[in-house]
Amino acid sequence: MAPREQRFQLVDTDPNITEDSTFGTTRRETWKYKVPDGTEIILSKGDEFSLYAEDSGDAEYTDPGALVQIEVRDASEQKVINVYGPNNYKCSTEFQERKKIAKLQLDAPIRVKSREYIVILTTDDTGMDSASVANSYCRLLCTKRVLS
Amino acid sequence: MAFVEPFVITQEDSNVTQADGTAETLQDLFKYRVPTGIVIILRPGDPVKLHVDETDSSVGQATSQVLFEIRDATGEEIKPLLGPMQYANFSASGIGEFQDEDKIVRLGIGREIRVREKEYIVVRVKNATPYADKDLSWFSIECHRER
Q1: Does residue B11 belong to the interface with chain A, where contact is any CB pair within 8 Å?
Q2: pLDDT tens digits, residue range A42-81?
Q3: Which of A10, A49, A50, B144 has CB atoms 3.0–4.6 Å from B41's, for a disulfide?
């Protein structure tokens, strides 16, 4: 059967996402999505990304000092491609208004294959705990290709 | 083989040095040094965002002068990249504009510019009293890097 392509919203509650709530001022893998077997994710120029993040004091991230980045990693996590950022937090906080939503600036589409990773990294001055990660959320609009 | 990927230069980058301004003086606020093995690629239309805060935590004055420039490794050869222009261009809503596509400042260069390793991209600001505060101000240049 031919592969099927459909638009896909990758959100923080996806069952293939693991969360990291490392405390302290560090660059943490807040959401790490492992592409399931039989699936590919295609990231393209203009794909939209939004997030809301809280620190361990239950306060929203503030600039300067808060950064957001998205990486694509192979299954071994040795090969890393930067697809967004590291940008100031405020650049990616809009969920509704189309002209304000952050967009990927890729020259060519990137295929993220089965067992590879899309990692959303955040940095802030305070740190996150499990409660603040639970209160935070994100959305990446992309394309999913189901191979079988 | 060289690989090109999207990249954003911000004030938090470890290759950026920051310095508070001096009142009524056009001075380096942020200075990014391109690291070894990297080429920064600036293209026409790349978004440039800036928020300036003063040392008393008030927003930078709309009439403050802002200039982005490229310097060679010695710092002697200087090429203007953007401006000089008023800070009002970056702060359509009163504070620095970081989201609205219709209001964000974009590079008005005619062709792609490659900033090579050990060269600099510098953000310069001239603000009246009180001067621009490096710890409260922030910027981003959305570009590409070759590695």
Answers
A1: yes
A2: 999 999 999 999 988 888 998 888 999 999 999 999 999 9
A3: B144
Q: Are A34 and A120 in contact (CB under 8 A)?
A: no
For residue A88, list chain B residues with Cβ-Cβ distance below 8 A. 10, 12, 49, 98, 138, 140
Closest residue in A to B137 (Cα) is A64
Q: Which CATH number fits domain B4-146: 2.60.120.1180, 3.40.50.300, 1.20.120.530, 3.40.50.150?
A: 2.60.120.1180
Q: Are B39 and B58 in contact (CB under 8 A)?
A: no
Among B4, B8, B145, whose Cβ lies nearest the Cβ of A87? B8
The number of domains in chain A is 1
Distance CA B19, CA B29 (A): 5
Check CB contact under 8 Å for B99 and A87.
no
Amino acid at A90: K
